[in-house]
Structure prediction request, 1354 residues.
Amino acid sequence: MDTNRIFELSEIADKILQGKDKDTDIAPVVAELRELLSDYRQGSVGMAQLNPIAGDIEYNAKKIMKYISYATQIGLDMVLFPELSIMGYPIEDTIDRHPIIVDENIKWLKEIAKLTTTTTAVVGFVEPRKYENKTGKKYYNSLAILSGGEIRSIVRKSLLPNYSEFNDYRYIEPSPVVGAQPPETLGMFDEENVCECEKTNLINNVRYGFSICEDCWNNKTFFSSTLYGIDPIEELSKENPDVFINCSASPSRAKKEQLKHNMLSFISENYGVPVVYLNQVGAIDNSSFDGSSRVFDKDGVLLARAKSFEEQFLIVNPVKGLGKIYPLTKGLEKSLTEEKKFTLDYENDLERTYKTIIQGIRDYFKKNGLKRACLGLSGGLDSTVCAVLLADALGKENVFGVSMPSKITSKESRSDAELLAANLGINFAEMPIKDMVDTTNRMFDDLFSQVESKWDCRYEKSFTQDNIQARSRAMYLWGIANEFASCVPIATSDKSELYMGYATINGDMSGGFAPIADVPKTKLFAFARWMNINRAEKNAIPEAIILKRPGAELAIDEKTGKPLIAEDALMPYEFLDEVIWRIENKHEYYQDMIDSEFLYEKNNKVTKEEKTEWLNKFYRRMATSLYKWSILPPSVIVESRSINKYDYKQPITSSHINYKGTDKSDIVRKLREVAKL
Amino acid sequence: MDTNRIFELSEIADKILQGKDKDTDIAPVVAELRELLSDYRQGSVGMAQLNPIAGDIEYNAKKIMKYISYATQIGLDMVLFPELSIMGYPIEDTIDRHPIIVDENIKWLKEIAKLTTTTTAVVGFVEPRKYENKTGKKYYNSLAILSGGEIRSIVRKSLLPNYSEFNDYRYIEPSPVVGAQPPETLGMFDEENVCECEKTNLINNVRYGFSICEDCWNNKTFFSSTLYGIDPIEELSKENPDVFINCSASPSRAKKEQLKHNMLSFISENYGVPVVYLNQVGAIDNSSFDGSSRVFDKDGVLLARAKSFEEQFLIVNPVKGLGKIYPLTKGLEKSLTEEKKFTLDYENDLERTYKTIIQGIRDYFKKNGLKRACLGLSGGLDSTVCAVLLADALGKENVFGVSMPSKITSKESRSDAELLAANLGINFAEMPIKDMVDTTNRMFDDLFSQVESKWDCRYEKSFTQDNIQARSRAMYLWGIANEFASCVPIATSDKSELYMGYATINGDMSGGFAPIADVPKTKLFAFARWMNINRAEKNAIPEAIILKRPGAELAIDEKTGKPLIAEDALMPYEFLDEVIWRIENKHEYYQDMIDSEFLYEKNNKVTKEEKTEWLNKFYRRMATSLYKWSILPPSVIVESRSINKYDYKQPITSSHINYKGTDKSDIVRKLREVAKL
Prediction:
């Protein structure tokens, strides 16, 4: 039989269900699908790779209901929804402060259950605990298994991630048992009424073992280290299920995918049991979820894979071998090197980077009722890359690029900015900041002389002039956002410069969203080239912008008389990005880096003094940037580690850490000194 | 014997050790103390209530060493330091990204151990796990028990808080055993080598049971609900210790103290064992620790209590009944009502509020190398209270108040601001913003007409004018901060207004620190009056400022022709603050509040329509304020619940939550509609 037709019809139905095709009648599509699927009924699974909105229960529940109806009508055994699908993941502390939303998610869940018939639906929700023993947290992260108008059983998450952007453990209690518990335990479960019944579920004579996200990430053979004592999959395997099901909400991060693919393949092969892994899609604040849901057969071979960064309803049958493998976004593939070595060859990860950020921007705007973006176009790389991403995410008509030249801005920068806007087709305005800067300077002269009369601590050299320019520009952009509906100004800072605090508070780092705050500068160069090749409109980014050495054009270099080049003020970006990479990925410290050869050193002559100076500067600047990280607008997490405040937590008041370490003899001497009293 | 002399000498020594008294020779003080303490030697404990700096290991270690020497010289059995005292608490993810600091804290600890002699020192540190089984997190939160030049044993924290501002569980593994383990397990401990030795420690024939902070917060009889399955204190009690010791780092929050006092008293009485509870003092970013360390005798009666919000070395003997009870800051006392009812009577909590914030400001500045603050003085309540707090925390000479009137600013506001500055003795400048506003408006006319030609979505009524004023002022303040050394501009937003998003991005909510971001407006009125009575200089705050109805003076009310009053734009503050209080403390939702009588309703006529309108406005405005909460500068957490992003986590992308709930019949109807496909 030609299974291609199944996937063809499935894609047509997807478009109708997603509202992208309003002209086609779904009834004949459904009828034909039902007919084609009749041979595959036993063991058939619909994987609803959906994009929820955190806390918007009505929106999520209605979407779920629609897909349950669809799955029922085409005659599937089962339809799966992602982790916490009714509530939306993540929901964080909201469930504690506003418990009404937990009540609501239960109310909607119960009504959904009543409307189920022949197809089993697996729906993620926040479950209040019975809490009779008054111990632990008040909620579980659960799956409800629904059919025939009833809740059939409940599965609860045992392993709760509590690192990076994950905070499950704050208000969720780890389940003391894995797998299914009886329906009457809904909201009534605690350790005292663990049912010693079957933990797996028999549905149309196929036995399924259900787990939730992190539950499948703890295989002690596969991982060199694990976070938890128990392995829920191992537990479930004891009942010899025919299929493992895992419902997830797992965001995209650099190099995570290789691990995930290999791990899922390992599990299926190791237990000789197919694995169905469903992941949500869409972005919420700083996290962008890639979907890429998949099925491995009992030999660990990929049988099916959904699209990445798109909603899709993928029909599979892990028992009968029905599935389709959609192409993976480059950078999500398993061939991505895991070697721990810094490289400037970002090629492998650029498509993923692009889609991760595009989805991040698009969903932040859409889910928060926003529509338009305005940003400064300096003719530099950061604002250029942001402009391209915004145009692609929001539509060019919804983006306003404003060139705001000062006296330092070069003619080339102005024309590059204008050309870029024209190439992209975004709206463009030019608005010099001279008057604002002049006025501010005049006011400052007066103000500073008043302050100086009381405070004898005026800097000989300050960044005031630089900052006036950046802040004037932000003043314009926030003005536009205040005056025009649903418009958000964009913070254009990149990761390398944020590490160095090379960003102005209430200036370029201010905005409602920061698209590239987790992309290092050297990657941005590669990214710009990649976009010029891979976007439908080729070469939208003028070559001059990519070739130009970055500089904020806020100050004149006294030595050259030309605008200060950022690398001269900081250090070579290639060196800087390797320092960041070594700290984030290898947890190296000062001396480790002194002792290693950097890629930059291979290609350039670097004296020991220079290297030492750069490293000293790095740590000095990083220490005083911690505050800036804490006030950064929401941004998309892209790399495997970041400085996003929801991902990485360091007290600002740790700015005097000695990152160099101390000699033992120094320690002894210093302690003896104070021991004298 | 006269024990008063012990505490008298102890206070003299404290001043010398803290560097506050550089003229007095410590030797005779030490000698006399040693003599006086000779009868109390057995069971004597020095409680070093210190103020650490997160990650500044050398600073912390040297301080610890100094007090060990002192304790040894005066002949105490033991000296205690707070939780994680060498590392500083909290240190968060820093130990993962920069493991060098963990190595460092071990190096310093080992050298400290070598310098101990007759007095046992109990020092908190981050301990790397052996990690041979490669499961769990990499670190323990531990205490080292040191004497005679050696590490005698190690105690590890079992209960790890992971709510509010606490993130212990992110990188710390809960210890599988409570109490002492042998010294050779330092860095080598895992579940496989649990020593079945004594869990309590015999020191000079007194038996001690050690625990760390949260370990003592899980008594199932005392608490109506608990977070953890085990109770470390119960475990320790099985070895019949003579004294329980708990080393903590526990920040001050409204109403927490009553609980803490009663709990510690309950534990000592329940087990018939004295409790020595040591808490750190000082502030780190958003958390302000009160100290107030104490000792309860075996009958649960308070025997000793250290000062609040101050470093102190308190000498006690829980076995022989030696101790002194220092007065508690009002608001920290156990008589604070726990009744769950909203009140405008804040009197009970104002001294604590004051000291919590003063310490928060002072330590944030000092520990980050900052010295000066500048703020706008509007003549309104928020900036006024901030100015007083800053003057008291940093010294009046280090504060610059800038009056920045616009055409809307009343004459009274200007003179009130000037009078306040004069009363406080802080520096003062007046700098009208007219030119800046005019220039900005001129630029905006040009800019907006360019934008309007492309975007057909200009608001009929916008906040652009209001925001220009607030942003011009922030521009001035950040200018001062850029031009003068170690100066921080202050964000003056209060809690009530932040809930309503009634604060300007890059305007009044911008700054390096936000002193009153967790103080509701009605409390600020009481606070201002309290400061006028309780500060050394009486009535520094002009009565007119307290009497005036708050308004941002950014816009003219069309109805009255006068500056818009905030309560007219929002709702009565008394009502608003009760909504906040009900949500934060009682987790009420919309309908709960519709159904309850508010305090404001008791004293004022409120129609059902008005109340509904206010509640609708509250939820609508709160939903769009989530972004503002995410970019707020560091601030001091004061109330029992807050919107501080390090304390409360809600996705910004949850702005469409339905806080009102849905009727069951609506749910059924809506689900049936979508089920049709």
